[in-house]
Amino acid sequence: MYRDETYAAVGKQLGQDAAEQAVARLSAEIATIDAELATDLFARDPGKATELSKSRAKAANALARAEEDWLSASAEYESAMA
User: Fold this and answer.
1) Residue 82: helix, strand or coil by DSSP?
2) What are phi and psi of 40, to 5 degrees?
3) Is the per-residue pLDDT at 7 higher than 60?
4) Whole-number percent of the chain with pLDDT over 90
5) Nearest Cα to 15, choosing from 26, 38, 23?
6) Mutual orientation of helices 2-37 and 46-81 as an angle, nearest 10°?
7) How far apart are CA 46 and CA 9, in angstroms?
8) Is the full-model pTM beyond 0.70?
9) Cα(20)–Cα(25) distance, integer angstroms
10) Are 80 and 9 in contact (CB under 8 A)?
11) Which of 12, 33, 50, 61 is the most interior residue, by most CB within 10 Å?
């Protein structure tokens, strides 16, 4: 029984790691977009600025989901280790 619980905990840890990597990746993506939007992009290329704004909104939504996944995976891992 201990072995099955250990494997379950390892699986949950992997889920937590994947979610954490997604959070980091999406945070970096948002930071890159924010840096580009902070320039005079709206004046130079309003179409591109609009597309970047939409991309940022999608990335922010994905980040919120990834954070929820991370919290859930963390809680599951902690429960498995208890």
Assistant:
1) coil
2) -90, 30
3) no
4) 59
5) 23
6) 160
7) 49
8) yes
9) 9
10) yes
11) 12
What is the residue type of 18? A
From 77, 29, 78, select the one nearest 52 (Cα to Cα).
29
On whether the CB atoms of residues 10 and 77 are closer than 8 A, the answer is no
Q: Specify the residue for token string 């597309």.
A: 51
CB 59 within 8 A of CB 30: yes
3-state secondary structure 7-66: HHHHHHHHHHHHHHHHHHHHHHHHHHHHHHHCCCHHHHCHHHHHHHHHHHHHHHHHHHHH
